[in-house]
Amino acid sequence: MLAKTAKKELPDIILVQEPYVKDNKIEGLPGYLKSWLSKNNKAGIIALPTCNNPIFLLSGNYIVAIKIQVNSSPLSIISSYSSPYCEIDQNLNETSNLITSLQGEDYLIGADLNAHSQSWGYSDFDTRGEKVLNFISSLNSQPLNTLGALPSYEQRNTKGWKDVTIVSSTDLVNNSNW
């Protein structure tokens, strides 16, 4: 499914959460693709050949980050995963520390935080969702998710909007399609 979507959408970068990992590598990727994983192997970034000179920034416990150039400006790309069985605060703190270190540079976060909020498609709201919304607000960031978007997770009789994309600036919002 990932290969089919990539062929259709032609991305430069793919953010993944909960990939199948073997020997600390995302399984099934062709050798010409660059990839990075968080320390817990639950968040990953895949750079396709069209991604020009990605620079590895960090592999944290819950996040992994690279930096690319977009229109001669730096953009940090962060992939993040938080298990529904763990406290989300550690993930949000790790992400916040990285963003602080960027000193005002733009960033995009693609995350599976297992958090419910009406802001990204769920009909309900939970404590994790409230923490994520407070996190987004504290950073003066914005979610890219659009209301009415298709679920990012579907299996048998279950569907959900677990994935949230967060950006640092209105320019990124205006130039993105979720």
Automatic annotation (TrEMBL):
It holds the Pfam family Exo_endo_phos_2. Residues 76-172 form the Endonuclease/exonuclease/phosphatase domain. It comes from the Eukaryota. InterPro entries: Endo/exonu/phosph_ase_sf, Endo/exonuclease/phosphatase. One of its GO terms (molecular function) is catalytic activity. This is Endonuclease/exonuclease/phosphatase domain-containing protein.
